[in-house]
Design a protein that fits this description.
Length: 167
């Protein structure tokens, strides 16, 4: 864990090298950091605040205001529930609630075992299949709560199979 944190700090310093210490660079810097780590570690946000000579709370406010930024590490599998108009009309909220209930996390969060993270997305262009959930870039059509159970069961079976193969 400590090695991981040292590595994060080192990589952050490399990212910040050559970037002008201007407030308007805050969002591009956060984007680069998220690109590198998949989320914004809190230690990095403090580092950025120091680098730009900004109060910590300013960096945190920007990171929480824009939903392009994640504050927790991504899971092994990403669940993206479409909240576009067609999916909303066909029960996108019910689908989202089903994912949240099954995984016991909300949008922007990751399960404690780091297997899944959930987020919402705007229309993914497959409205005829609404309500849609994109799981690991695969579009799951008509993703009602029953389908949610089926998708999760598949992952569970796959995981059990992998664990058996390991032993
Ligand atoms: S609104 Fe969900 S795919 Fe278009």
């Amino acid at each position: 864990m400590i090695n991981e944190e040292v590595e994060i700090v080192e990589k952050t310093k490399t990212i910040l090298e050559g970037i002008a210490r201007k407030r308007e660079n805050l969002i591009p810097i956060l984007q680069c950091i998220q690109e590198e780590f998949g989320y914004l570690p809190s230690s990095v946000m403090l580092e950025v605040a120091q680098f730009l000579n900004l109060p910590d709370i300013d960096v945190y406010s920007v990171a929480t205001f824009y939903n392009q930024f994640r504050l927790t590490p991504p899971g092994k599998h990403s669940i993206r529930v479409c909240m576009g108009t067609a999916c909303h009309v066909k029960g996108g909220q019910i689908t989202l609630a089903a994912w949240q209930r099954r995984l016991k996390i909300g949008p922007g969060e990751t399960t404690p075992d780091h297997e899944f993270d959930i987020d919402t997305v705007a229309c993914v262009g497959c409205c005829a299949m609404a309500p849609v959930t994109v799981v690991d870039k695969k579009v799951e059509a008509k993703a009602d709560p029953t389908r949610v159970d089926g998708i999760l069961l598949n992952y569970q079976l796959q995981r059990e199979k992998e664990e058996k193969e390991k032993n």
